Amino acid sequence: MPVISAPYAFNEGRLFVDLESVCGQPLFLKCEGFNFAGSIKLKAANEMVESAERDGALTPDSVLVESSSGNLGVALSVIAASKGYRFLCVTDSRCNLSTRLLMEALGSEVHIVADLDSNGGFLGKRIDYVRGLCASDPRYVWLSQYTNAGNWRAHYRTTAPEIAAQFPELDVLFVGAGTTGTLMGCARWFREWRRPVRIVAVDSVGSVAFGGEPGRRMIPGLGMSMRPPLLDESYVDEVLRVEETDTIRTCHRMARHGFLFGGSTGTVVSGATDWLARHDTRGLTAVAIAPDLGERYLDTVYQTNWLQDLYGEHVLDAEEVSTLTRQAKPASRGPGRRRRP
Ligand SMILES: Cc1ncc(COP(=O)(O)O)c(C=O)c1O
Q1: Which of 47, 76, 125, 182 has its CB 3.0 to 4.6 Å from that of 154, i.e. a possible disulfide?
Q2: Distance (Å, rounded) from C-alpha 123 to C-alpha 67?
């Protein structure tokens, strides 16, 4: 029985969902949403704060400041509240309302940037804003998740060995890419492992993280409007790009089986399912990482008006068809499958 006295001291590291009955491919999903910050970002936040404390960069009168699309902001809010630091999160208008309210409930200050940068994202503007704050007052301490080695080191120390411990025969790992902290930490650890693991990065269409054309992206977490400074592509075997409509359909498909995951999980699972359908999966062990859960996305990914305004009236039609097709083949399904009314 884990008993903790600090909210950052617990993280469920051993929970995996077997998605075969949901997506029709052999895929295990590592769930990173079960901690007091509700996302994988608690690991990166912990590592970066502890290392700034060790270096002496963070002192009791420091004010933490960070640019975040939400989850790192919540994780830093949890840690700052627990350790007695002030925290100011610079986010943008794509940040979910519930995420912003969460940060404020934890005592953090939230500043919202509304101007787009030249790549159609908010990142450049958010970073300019943080730089301006740091120049205005030496008490501001910017951990800079985009460049901080603690971001990837957290996953090198925890996420990758947690996967290896449960899947000693792992062949392929699918990792969503934002700052690429998760991707680089896992890729570096598995490069040193006793067996080769194919590292597949999953990005969203419209992100310029791995090159490509910038475009509109409405789902926070994955994708970048600049090249991630932490990214070293020599560790990445393949990059998949997923359309937001496919992300949304995959999120809804999982929700119909009772698994309510966040938007970026839909992206990673969609990319992974597609990849697995194109490869020989006999004897293959595949794992994907789910960065968070779905409650923060109730007013976006899981809200009909939001979906139809952005992606058109028929965005979920293809999903309806595939759900009905699956229902028409009950003999091929395992027990306990949820039936639609
Ligand atoms: C929901 C979600 N998914 C994926 C990611 C990407 O993780 P990373 O920044 O380690 O690449 C993030 C990062 O904030 C996130 O919040």
Answers
A1: 47
A2: 8
